[in-house]
Amino acid sequence: MITVLMAVISVYFLVKLYISVMQVGYINRAKRMTPMLMGSAAFLKAGNYAVAKEKLQMVGMGIEYVMFIVWLDGGIRWLDTITDALNDPFKSIVMVLAFLFINTLVEMPLSIYEKFVLDEKYGFNKTSKALYLKDTLITFALVGVLGSLVVWGVTAIIASTQMWWLWTFIFLFIVVIALNMFFPTMRALFFDKVTPLEDEALSEQIEELMQRTGFQSSGVFVSDASKRDTRLNAYFGGLGKSKRVVLFDTLLEKLNALELLAVLGHELGHFAHGDLYKNIGIVGGVLFVMLAIFGNLPDSLFVALNTGNSPAIIIILFMLFMPLVSFVIMPIMGMVSRYNEYEADRSGGELVGKLYLANALRKLVEENQSFPLSHPLYIFFYYTHPPVIERLRALGFDERSEATKEAARSECDADSINRELEEQ
Question: Which residue segment(s) compose the domain that 11 sits in?
Answer without folding.
Answer: 2-194+264-423
